[in-house]
C-alpha cells in the first residue's frame, strides 16, 4: 500500500513538471529561445489552475491507477486520449484569459506533454524488463521453459513469465504446428519447431518444464502432444484455456499438472439433450448412492435438466450433505431437491420411501465396489449389492416406476471376486424383472472411473508427493478407464434409449497398463524413475485379476445410434427360479460359514472362478500368443 501511494505521488510530481515543461518548451521552440516576458507572466498566472485541471483529467482517465509495469497498447491509448482532452480544455482556458498564441504552440505543447508523460509511465515496464532479463543474482539452476503453442494463450503466458523470470524461470522458445512460423519470433521468443520436435528441442535446450498452451486442441491432439512431451525429462503442465485469461493477463496459478484424463485422449460426450430431457425434465428422479462418486455426478448431470424433484438417497450422510450443498449453491430454489438417508438393505423402508416419493426414474448406483475389502467381507457384498438391488428393483416394479437404470461394472463379466459376482447377480435381477414388469429395467456396464473413491490415480499422486515408492500390484495388470463425467453422461443417455432388459456396454477405449500409468505420472511430475522415485510391485490382491472384460462370450454385441454405447445380447433369466436361489442365499447369510456362501454364489453365477486360476490361464495364453508371434 505504501509503495502504491509513493508511486502515485511520484507520477503526480512528474506530471506537474511535464505539463508545465512541455508548454514552456513549445514556447521556447516557437520563439527560437526569446520568449516575451509578457507571455511568460500571463502563463505563470494561469499555471496553477491549468496544472490542477489537467491532473484531475489524468486521474479521471486512470493514469494514476494502472499497473504500469504491465503497460500495453491500452495504457498507451489512455495517455494519448487523456493528453488530447486535457490540452484541448487547457487551450480553451488559456485563450479565455487572454493568452493568445500561435496555434502551433498548443499543438507542439500537446505532443510534447503526451510524449513525456507516456515515457515516464512506460519506463516502469522498460526497467522491469531489464531487471528480469539481467537480474543482479543469477540462479545456479535456472528453470528453462518450453511453451507448446504460440497463439494468444501461449504468448500471454510467455509475457507473464518474462515479467516474473526470477520467480518462474526463462522461456527458451515456442513449439507450434504452423510450419510458416518456424524460426520467427513472438514477444522476442523464437519458435523452435513443431509438435514432433518437442523431445529434441527439450533435450537441446535443457528444458525443465513444458507448458502446453493449446486451448483449442482436440483430446486426441492433446494426447499426442503429451506423449511427445513425456519422452523428455521435463515436468509437463497445461494451461486449460483462454477462459482463464483475465484482463489480458495470464494467471499462472491456473496452469495445472497433466491429468490422466489428458493422457487417455477421450473426447467429451455430447448428450442428446432433447432425448434425455424427454424422460428427466419435469419428472421425479431418484439416485440411490447419490453421494458416491458416480451417484453424485449423476445428480449433477440430472440437475441440469431441472427435474420436478431430485431425490438423493444414501446411507452415508456426509457425502449426501456435500452434494446437496453443492447443488443448492448452484441452483438455489430452481431445483426441488430432497435428501433421504436410508439403506437399500432395509426392504420395508425402501418400499415405503418409493411408494411415498413415487419416482418416475431410478438410477441405482448404491453398491459396495472395493474388490479386496469385499473379498474379506463377502456377506456384506451380497447383502448390500444383491439384496439392496433386489429391494429397490422390486419396489420400482411394485409401484410402477417408469425406468430403472442400474450402474454395473466390467468386473461382473466372468468374475474372479465376490464383488464382481454380486454385480452379475444384480444384472440377472434386472434382466429377470424386465421380462415381467412394465418398468423399463436396464443396466449399464463400464470399467474403472478416474478420480472415483478407491481409484488408483489419487493413490499414485499421493505416493509421488511423499517421495514414493509408487505401489503397483502386478507389472502386467491392465484396466479400462473413463472419466466420472463421461461415465455419468453415458449412463443417462443409455437410460433414454432403454426398452427394458438390456445391458448397455460403454466404449472404454483401449485398456491401459497400470504400471505404464504409474511411469507416466512419475515422468509428468518431472521426476526420474529409479533415481528420484521407484515403483514397487506388491503382488495381486485378493480377488484381483490381470485384465477386465466388458462382455461375456454368449452376450454378443450390438451397436446403438451412439458411438460409445453398445448393447449386450439379453440373457434368458427366469426370475422365479432366480428368486428361489436368492432365498437360499439369504438363508446362508445367517450362517457363520463363508465357504457355503461362495459355493452358492458360484451356483448362481457359473462363470465365477478363483482369480489365481484365471490369472494363471491368462498368463499361459499370453505366453503362447507371444511365442506364436515370434514364429
Describe it.
This protein is α/β, with parallel strands linked by helices and 631 residues long. The chain contains 22 helices and 24 strands. Strand 14, helix 16 and strand 15 form a beta-alpha-beta unit.
Q: What descriptors fit this protein?
A:
631 residues, alpha/beta, Rossmann fold, 3 domains, 9-stranded mixed beta sheet, 7-stranded mixed beta sheet, 22 helices, disordered C terminus
Describe the structure concisely for a colleague:
By secondary structure, this protein is an alpha/beta fold. It contains 22 helices and 24 strands.
The CATH superfamily of the largest domain turns out to be NAD(P)-binding Rossmann-like Domain
The radius of gyration computed from the alpha-carbon positions, rounded to a whole number of angstroms, is 35 Å
Indicate the percent of residues in helices: 40-55%
Largest sheet data = 9 strands, mixed
The termini sit apart by: 77 Å
Strand-pairing-aware structural class: alpha/beta
- In CATH, the architecture of the largest domain is 3-Layer(aba) Sandwich
Number of DSSP strand runs: 24
Helical region count? 22
Mean pLDDT: 81
Beta content comes to: 5-15%
CATH topology of the largest domain: the name is Rossmann fold
CATH class of the largest domain: Alpha Beta
Instruction: State the shape.
Output: elongated
- List segments where confidence is low: pLDDT < 50 over at least 5 consecutive residues: 242-250, 624-631
Q: How do the strands of the widest beta sheet line up side by side?
A: 12-11-10-13-14-15-20-24-23
Number of domains: 3
Amino acid at each position: 500500500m505504501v509503495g502504491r501511494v509513493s508511486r502515485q505521488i511520484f507520477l503526480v510530481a512528474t506530471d506537474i513538471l511535464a505539463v508545465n515543461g512541455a508548454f514552456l518548451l513549445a514556447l521556447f521552440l516557437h520563439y527560437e529561445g526569446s520568449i516575451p516576458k509578457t507571455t511568460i507572466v500571463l502563463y505563470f498566472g494561469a499555471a496553477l489552475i491549468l496544472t490542477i485541471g489537467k491532473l484531475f483529467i489524468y486521474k479521471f482517465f486512470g493514469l494514476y491507477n494502472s499497473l504500469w509495469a504491465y503497460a500495453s497498447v491500452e495504457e498507451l491509448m489512455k495517455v494519448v486520449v487523456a493528453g488530447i482532452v486535457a490540452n484541448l480544455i487547457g487551450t480553451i482556458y488559456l485563450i479565455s484569459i487572454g493568452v493568445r498564441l500561435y496555434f502551433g504552440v498548443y499543438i507542439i505543447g500537446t505532443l510534447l506533454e503526451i510524449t513525456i508523460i507516456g515515457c515516464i509511465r512506460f519506463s516502469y515496464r522498460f526497467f522491469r524488463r531489464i531487471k528480469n532479463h539481467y537480474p543482479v543474482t543469477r540462479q545456479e539452476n535456472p528453470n528453462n521453459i518450453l511453451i507448446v503453442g504460440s497463439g494468444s494463450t501461449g504468448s500471454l503466458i510467455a509475457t507473464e513469465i518474462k515479467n516474473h523470470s526470477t520467480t518462474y524461470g526463462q522461456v527458451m522458445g515456442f513449439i507450434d504446428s504452423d510450419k510458416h512460423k518456424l524460426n520467427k519470433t513472438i514477444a522476442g521468443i523464437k519458435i523452435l519447431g513443431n509438435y514432433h520436435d518437442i523431445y529434441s528441442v527439450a533435450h537441446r535446450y535443457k528444458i525443465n518444464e513444458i507448458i502446453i498452451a493449446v486451448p483449442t486442441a482436440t483430446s486426441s491432439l492433446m494426447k499426442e502432444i503429451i506423449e511427445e512431451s513425456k519422452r523428455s525429462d521435463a515436468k509437463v503442465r497445461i494451461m486449460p484455456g483462454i477462459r482463464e485469461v483475465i484482463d489480458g493477463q495470464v494467471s499462472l496459478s491456473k496452469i495445472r499438472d497433466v491429468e490422466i484424463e489428458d493422457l487417455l485422449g477421450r473426447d467429451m460426450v455430447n448428450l442428446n439433450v432433447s432425448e434425455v430431457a424427454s424422460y428427466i425434465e419435469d419428472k421425479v428422479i431418484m439416485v440411490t448412492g447419490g453421494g458416491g462418486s458416480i451417484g453424485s455426478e449423476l445428480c449433477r448431470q440430472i440437475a441440469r435438466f431441472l427435474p420436478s424433484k431430485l431425490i438423493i438417497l444414501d446411507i452415508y450422510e456426509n457425502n449426501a450433505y456435500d452434494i446437496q450443498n453443492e447443488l443448492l449453491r448452484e441452483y438455489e430454489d430452481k431445483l426441488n431437491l430432497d435428501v433421504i438417508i436410508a439403506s437399500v438393505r432395509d426392504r420395508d423402508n425402501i418400499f415405503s420411501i418409493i411408494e411415498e416419493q413415487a419416482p418416475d426414474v431410478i438410477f441405482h448406483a448404491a453398491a459396495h465396489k472395493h474388490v479386496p475389502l469385499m473379498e474379506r467381507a463377502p456377506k456384506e457384498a451380497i447383502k448390500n449389492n444383491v439384496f439392496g438391488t433386489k429391494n429397490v428393483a422390486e419396489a420400482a416394479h411394485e409401484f410402477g416406476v417408469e425406468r430403472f437404470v442400474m450402474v454395473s461394472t466390467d468386473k461382473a463379466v466372468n468374475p474372479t471376486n465376490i464383488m464382481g459376482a454380486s454385480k452379475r447377480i444384480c444384472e440377472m435381477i434386472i434382466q429377470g424383472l424386465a421380462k415381467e414388469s412394465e418398468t423399463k429395467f436396464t443396466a449399464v456396464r463400464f470399467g474403472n472411473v478416474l478420480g472415483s473413491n478407491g481409484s488408483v490415480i489419487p493413490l499414485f499422486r499421493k505416493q509421488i508427493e511423499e517421495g514414493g515408492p509408487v505401489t503397483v500390484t502386478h507389472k502386467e495388470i491392465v484396466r479400462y478407464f473413463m472419466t466420472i463425467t463421461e461415465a455419468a453422461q453415458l449412463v443417462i443417455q443409455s437410460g433414454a434409449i432403454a426398452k427394458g432388459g438390456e445391458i448397455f456396454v460403454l466404449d472404454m477405449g483401449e485398456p491401459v497398463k497400470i504400471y505404464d500409468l504409474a511411469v507416466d505420472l512419475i515422468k509428468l511430475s518431472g521426476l526420474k524413475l529409479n533415481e528420484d522415485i521407484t515403483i514397487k510391485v506388491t503382488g495381486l490382491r485378493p480377488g484381483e485379476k490381470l485384465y477386465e472384460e466388458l462382455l461375456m462370450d454368449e452376450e454378443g454385441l450390438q451397436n446403438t445410434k451412439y458411438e460409445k454405447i453398445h448393447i449386450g445380447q439379453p440373457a434368458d433369466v427366469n426370475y422365479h427360479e432366480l428368486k428361489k436361489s436368492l432365498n437360499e442365499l439369504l438363508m446362508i447369510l445367517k450362517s457363520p460359514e463363508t465357504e457355503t456362501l461362495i459355493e452358492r454364489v458360484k451356483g448362481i453365477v457359473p462363470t465365477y472362478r478363483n482369480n489365481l486360476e484365471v490369472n494363471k490361464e491368462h498368463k499361459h495364453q499370453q505366453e503362447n500368443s507371444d511365442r506364436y508371434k515370434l514364429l
